Amino acid sequence: MDLSWDSLDIDSELKKIIKNEFKFESMTPIQAASIPLFITNKDLIVEAVTGSGKTLAFVIPILQILIRKSRAEAIKKHDIGAVVVSPTRELATQIFNVFKIFTDHSDEFHFKMMLLIGGSNTDKDIRNYANNGANIIVSTPGRLFDLLEKSTIFSSKIRQCLEVFVLDEADQLLNLGFEKTLNDIIDYLPKLRRTSLFSATQTKEVSQLIRAGLRNPMKIEIKEKNLKKLKPNQLHMPNRLMNKYIVFESAEDKLPFLIDFIRQHSKEKFLVFTSTCAQVNYFERILNRYLSSNKILLLKLHRKLKNKRQKIYDQFRETNHSLLLCTDVVSRGVDIPQVDWVIHFDLPLTIENYVHRCGRSAHQINTYGNSLLFCLGHEMQFVDHSKSRGIDVQQFDQNELKSDLQLKESLFNWIRSELKRNINFYQMSIEAFVSFIRTYSSKHLMAKWLFKNCDVVDIANGYGLLTMPKMPELRQAKKCSTQFKGSDEDAKIVGKFKQILYDKKVIKNNDSEQVSKIESNTAKKFGFKRNPEIVQTIRKVRRNKTMKGRTRKIIFDELDLEELNSDARMVKKLKKSKISNKEFDDYFGLSK
To answer: Where is the Helicase C-terminal domain (predicted)?
Structure first.
């Protein structure tokens, strides 16, 4: 197979940009196999592993096809000649930037491009297209379908002008639940088009999509020489990846080990994966406190951050000593330079997710990397299943596992102290635990076996919870002898927090009648009303229409905390006879 760029029948301008801007001396096998077929009107199915160079494998043919068309007929600014669909905003942005390198450095062609992703107003995208046009669209599925439905000019130009349609990471698109959306999008497309599908694995759902969207496709699958002996159901990792797992006796050991491990490798780059957005938010607060003195940049990323995601992702890509605490939103396709460690704080939901997470390290040419999977005793089934799928995963050297009892004790003392002091942090802890349990008990590949054998009390202790939340899922877990570390005093504090949260919710909804009822009930239950001055302040904040979002929330939290502290001070003053009984009654609204 000839891997030289000169062997390709493509425009000389494209070759010049590849050599000058990308500095690629030769093609990868997947590029050499797919590009010649793509530019000669073939529909393709390409199985491409991470680091195989698949982005250029469809970017170059798209540009070549549009260059050829532009020389035969004029391409107007609204003529959409190509659409690329990607599962995540981060990957879509990365693909868009590859296209941009070509268009920014060309003297001969200047195709207009448009990036369509969530986090911005759909109407703004429609106006942008109407005013400026686009010849190449890179989009996530939901946003593309929105524009097809809402913009007549957009959908009509797709039907009239589309030459190429590409689905990137098709298996993840389907795993994320986009099957119906993709089929609806395909219904809008013209029948005469070139379609290529790039996928890491061929699933039943992908096969159905192929039948719906491709015409007599050619399949391209390139494997490395040392992987040809793998069985059909086996998976493989990058060659230069050291893949290890570590088994903890208790869930309480995971956070202290993570902190200590990062401190010892603070000059390296980390991706730390958890299962849910709420876990990312909670653990980020904890890690921020314990890693702030180590000069490592700590970032968090999950789908709920919306339009902040790209800025955070770019910041992580551009720094060498950093840690990104994230969900699986960045587990596929994204190209992050030199990730030294991929740490799986929670088990991945599937074996395929495990492979893709690990592939964020050691996927670039001549780079090495490491993957470390955190396991509890009952989770060894996942490790065994991974090995049965051809994944070489070795146990972490136990001599390197130095248990820092002092760190563990100080960590959980601080967590529980902060939970008692900070109502917002308390909420985060509950949301993190609940979201993890619900995901672990229902969405995991091995949920049936793993959840019934897990110690939920031990996991709750690992989150530092003050009380065990009431969840139907917990009734399904096995009974264990582990002692929950919350106390009766903790339960009283949680009861107070719940009352505050309920009151705040009612006040926010501006239901004055219900507020009066709650104040009356609170007086009967606790022996006093809410501090009238603070209630009045809260009402003023609520009426202030210019105060929005996070600022408003912080003020409410501070007011709640201030009321707790103020109440406590008044009780102490009464005990020490610094105030009279009448002054105490007046403060709490008990005077007749």
So the answer is: 254-411
